[in-house]
């Protein structure tokens, strides 16, 4: 797990270092402040847990859809609590966050409340970074979800 996290961070930061010689855009890549329109996004991620005894039990897939306005965003997440795809582990989550520029990257913080369809609720909070290329963003985030730590690489399409 630590090797995967180290590799992901190394790739993101090497891209950031390489891009330091490139002209930096004056406008934040995810900034919607130039217009008063709401923008929409869709994303997919695979979260990798810190208790890796069995990959299928400690990782989960999720799909998120939401809207963004002036760098604040909110969305609905649907997923399964592990990769075994058992009915009892499906969940939904309502998430809100804030995105901010870090040079050519974007940082974000978020908080969410969710519930498994057949059992208890949970809280998620975390932070992440992403790199945008036109309407597609590639990111990685750290979160504490239902009391466990996760690293989540993700791809988001802003439309």
Quick gist of this model?
The chain is mainly β and about 160 residues long. It has two helices and eight strands, in the order αβαβββββββ.
Structural overview:
About 17% of the residues have low confidence. An 8-stranded antiparallel barrel has the order 1-2-3-4-5-6-7-8. It has a single domain, classed as Beta Barrel (Porin), CATH 2.40.160.20. β2 and β3 form a beta hairpin. By secondary structure, the protein is mainly β. 13% of the residues lie in helices and 57% in strands.
Write the layout of secondary structure elements.
Elements: H1 2-18, E1 39-49, H2 55-58, E2 59-69, E3 72-80, E4 90-102, E5 105-116, E6 121-133, E7 136-145, E8 148-158
Antiparallel strand pairs: 1-2, 1-8, 2-3, 3-4, 4-5, 5-6, 6-7, 7-8
What's the number of structural domains?
1
H-E order: HEHEEEEEEE
**What is the overall shape?**
globular
Write down the overall mean pLDDT.
80
Report the radius of gyration as a whole number of Å.
Answer: 16 Å
CATH architecture: Beta Barrel
Q: What's the story with the biggest beta sheet?
A: 8 strands, antiparallel, barrel
């Amino acid at each position: 797990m630590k090797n995967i996290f180290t590799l992901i961070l190394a790739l993101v930061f090497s891209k950031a270092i390489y891009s330091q010689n490139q002209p930096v855009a004056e406008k934040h890549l995810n900034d919607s402040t130039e217009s008063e329109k709401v923008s929409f996004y869709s994303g997919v991620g695979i979260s990798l847990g810190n208790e890796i005894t069995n990959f299928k039990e400690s990782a989960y897939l999720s799909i998120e859809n939401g809207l963004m306005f002036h760098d604040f965003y909110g969305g609905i997440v649907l997923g399964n609590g592990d990769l075994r795809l058992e009915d009892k582990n499906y969940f939904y989550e309502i998430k809100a966050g804030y995105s901010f520029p870090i040079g050519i990257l974007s940082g974000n913080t978020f908080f969410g409340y969710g519930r498994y369809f057949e059992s208890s609720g949970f809280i998620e909070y975390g932070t992440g970074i992403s790199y945008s290329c036109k309407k597609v963003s590639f990111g990685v985030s750290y979160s504490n979800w239902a009391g466990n730590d996760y690293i989540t690489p993700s791809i988001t399409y802003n439309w």
